[in-house]
Amino acid sequence: MASPGSGFWSFGSEDGSGDPENPGTARAWCQVAQKFTGGIGNKLCALLYGDAEKPSESGGSQPPRAPSRKAACACNQKPCSCPKTDVNYAFLHATDLLPACDGERPTLAFLQDVMDILLQYVVKSFDRSTKVIDFHYPNELLQEYNWELADQPQNLEEILMHCQTTLKYAIKTGHPRYFNQLSTGLDMVGLAADWLTSTANTNMFTYEIAPVFVLLEYVTLKKMREIIGWPGGSGDGIFSPGGAISNMYAMLIARFKMFPEVKEKGMAAVPRLIAFTSEHSHFSLKKGAAALGIGTDSVILIKCDERGKMIPSDLERRILEAKQKGFVPFLVSATAGTTVYGAFDPLLAVADICKKYKIWMHVDAAWGGGLLMSRKHKWKLSGVERANSVTWNPHKMMGVPLQCSALLVREEGLMQSCNQMHASYLFQQDKHYDLSYDTGDKALQCGRHVDVFKLWLMWRAKGTTGFEAHIDKCLELAEYLYNIIKNREGYEMVFDGKPQHTNVCFWYVPPSLRVLEDNEERMSRLSKVAPVIKARMMEYGTTMVSYQPLGDKVNFFRMVISNPAATHQDIDFLIEEIERLGQDL
Length: 585
Hints:
CATH class of the domain at 196-452: Alpha Beta
Structural class: alpha/beta
CATH architecture of the domain at 196-452: 3-Layer(aba) Sandwich
Helix content: 25-40%
């Protein structure tokens, strides 16, 4: 493998004199940073120019340094003439911060220094001349730092260094050249909302302890149901810890709807239940079946066409087979935006079959739900309004910070009946306000994180039109990539035709394999190409993109775009980087 360092400076320049589409340079960000108050701008400039994590010959960077500052004053006089004393974090511990007596001044200083570290990381995340990843193997990181927990407290200087070290080795998922997962990008309003949520530090189970957040969840879920197409936004819903849990909620509610006695009596009281989903669907359907006692063998995988869409005729055939065996079909989970191909199942045809056989229809739109915000692309989810439940993850295509996943249910009150346990110490029936806003009893969790605020605040900041522009841009970038590589030497598409989502699936074929016949030996060698290129990407730190096999297809790249910071320049860079890293294979 080539040593990291060669060819790095082709993808970014410190003075911003390169491509005009590259605003993320240290100098440009320094000019912006000067607008910050409280000395933060000067600190950011010093940090950017002093330790910008530029790719280097060694691939290393300077060890983090604990910041030093003069303490902020906590008095109420503005302007104030109080002397600013130096804060020596080496002699301070967490017990010296609030609620300690006289803890205001060290607390303000400490939190401002934490903020400096975070702002430095935010700025670097958008700078194309910094690494996406400073990769180290697990054993290297374990040996380089002492991560063990101790009985005695460390001082605040060490705590700040831990913050810096953690971010030093974190993957910059907001970097314009990070394409590895469905969740990418770093939205500033969403980030601010997440900070506020952590500061509020409350739970979502009752109105009395989360009044604004509970109301915002009500308003936001109603709006999402309206966008799905349910009249007046009627129905129910909840924000859950990810799409896998949202899908399990759908399975749980569908089972309760058909056999409410299962809540008290368990699976022994019901017949053998069967769920159906496509062979390209998310693994969470089988996980949910295992967790609920339904069993993975009771999840029937339906054949897909060459583009990864469920074949309705095979769905109906398998439903009839299950019924003939005496089993009870209770749920069909269609997918709107499959994880690998980005395929959209034919929801109208699936809805007709579910209606015919009286089966709960769930749509897993965790990845594709965001397209409902786009007038240009929402047709791909035609028929979603006929679903009984929908999973929709704003933390994917809409760029909301992790985590933010919603389950929407068409029938109001069903979630409550399915899950409520009437805990009298939380859900007293003689409270002085409308008890319908105590939403905790319809959730499986007791403690539930506030996930709604970042989505709500971003929606207020961007408007629906802002999300639409974001989504349209990402799909346009995917089409741009497809148009470049579909006829480019050294590339082969996994399936024919323009992608429906931002998923672009392809093989890179190095020069040594292009002359070989299409046989088993060629496939065996081709299967090793993507993993090696991916490893080299991570060693160099230049970009990240995912790969996987699927069915009889050997390892191929799956490019996805959900970060609105990405540009045509970044797509061009990715192609050139794949070719640079793979030409000798």
